[in-house]
Design goal:
Elements: H1 2-44, H2 49-59, H3 61-74, H4 79-104, H5 108-129, H6 131-139, H7 144-147, H8 154-183, H9 198-223, H10 232-258, H11 266-291, E1 308-322, E2 325-339, H12 345-353, H13 364-375
Antiparallel strand pairs: 1-2
């Protein structure tokens, strides 16, 4: 009876595969159009490279996920290769989101100062409450990540960076390890059996991902008040929904297959995961339009000199009566307008890819004029 059930389910999958590809394809088109439109907006208003290079990296996760998933759904044979590419970019996107938060706080040096001030305030309060507790907090810096993260100071930044980097490295290594095991026929995608590599890799990635998420959450808890202008909670939730929800979704589908709720046929498991991701990426693209909007950067004036100064001089003549004589006086009015710089898409892409988010070269031409303007 079970075999008949699975054969019928397989037949249903075969019959609805084409419809699933069409529905998923429409969702992918929506995701690509909205995401690329948002990316182009950031590239055209590339006024804050320190932040926007990471924003673009995070937004680009949606086109990557959507493209890889529709290809895998359309051609199940490419499922493993697409999954590897998707996992590699997922790790980079998580790192990019962490760097984006640091950039919004003013860079690593500003973050260190912020964390040290926060640590000093917390330790000062505990000193008033009891010197023994204050001493114990200083003696157990690693335990404080679980108990008192606000007292860690700059160590919290180091742990947060380590949490993101370790996940990025492990995610990439495990992706290629899965490919190697698959070539030898011992990977067993979705099979929770001791002689397959899938369960071991899943456990390692699960702990690595949870640690990275925990470090990010603790860093957010300490700095969320300073991040309030960028509405960090909405960004945090939207990003977590893509990275971590899709991961647990895949694990959940694998468990359902291992328990016999769903057929253990690999293309059924992978196809369902890819179909759901395509639908979810369209929703994520809509959310990104509001969460990672480029509007705050339209009139952004960087404090580091990345502005354009345009001086205008106007001359007007006035007639002045002095008794019987009439004189003409010339009044000269000088004004200086400070404008947020605009870049072409080519310059913005080159800045992100080649120069790592530095400002375009023509900004340097304005520095001397700007400094003279400041002195005056």
């Amino acid at each position: 009876m079970a075999s008949n059930y699975f054969s019928n389910f397989e037949g249903i999958y075969t019959n609805f595969h084409q419809s699933a590809v069409i529905i998923a394809g429409c969702s992918v088109v929506i995701a690509l159009v909205l995401s690329l439109f948002l990316i182009l907006q950031h590239l055209r208003s590339y006024t804050n490279p320190a932040e926007q290079k990471w924003v673009v990296s995070v937004i680009f996760m949606v086109p990557v996920y959507a493209t890889e998933s529709i290809i895998s759904l359309w051609n199940p044979r490419s499922s493993l290769a697409c999954d590897i590419l998707r996992n590699c970019y997922e790790a980079f996107a998580l790192y990019s989101f962490g760097r984006y938060l640091i950039a919004c706080l003013g860079g690593e040096q500003r973050v260190v100062e912020l964390l040290e001030n926060e640590s000093g305030q917390c330790l000062g309060k505990s000193l008033l409450e009891g010197s023994d507790e204050n001493h114990s907090r200083r003696q157990r810096p690693f335990c404080n990540i679980f108990l008192h993260p606000s007292t860690m100071g700059k160590d919290l930044l180091s742990i947060e960076k380590f949490g993101l980097v370790q996940y990025m490295i492990l995610k990439t290594v495990c992706a290629f390890l899965a490919l190697l095991l698959e070539l030898f026929g011992v990977y067993g995608d979705g099979e929770f059996k001791w002689y397959y590599g899938y369960p071991y890799i899943a456990v390692v990635l699960n702990f690595s991902q949870m640690w990275a998420l925990y470090c990010l959450v603790q860093f957010y808890n300490v700095t969320h008040e300073r991040l309030e202008p960028i509405k960090p909670l909405a960004k945090f939730i939207s990003f977590k929904a893509i990275v971590f929800a899709t991961w647990w979704q895949g694990v959940g589908i694998a468990l359902l297959c291992s328990f016999g709720v769903l057929p253990k046929e690999g293309k059924v498991q992978n196809g369902l995961q890819d179909f759901l991701i395509c639908i979810e990426m369209a929703i994520a693209a809509v959310a990104h339009i509001f969460v990672f909007s480029a509007k705050p950067y339209y009139h952004f004036l960087p404090t580091s000199g990345n502005v354009q100064v345009r001086k205008e001089k106007k001359k007007t003549s006035m007639k002045i009566d002095e008794g019987d004589k009439e004189k003409v006086a010339v009044v000269e009015e000088a004004t200086a307008q400070v404008e947020s710089p605009r870049t072409s898409i080519k310059e913005s892409v080159q800045d992100i890819v080649v120069e790592g988010g530095q400002r375009p070269s023509y900004y340097e031409e304005e520095e001397e004029e700007l400094s003279l303007f400041d002195r005056n």
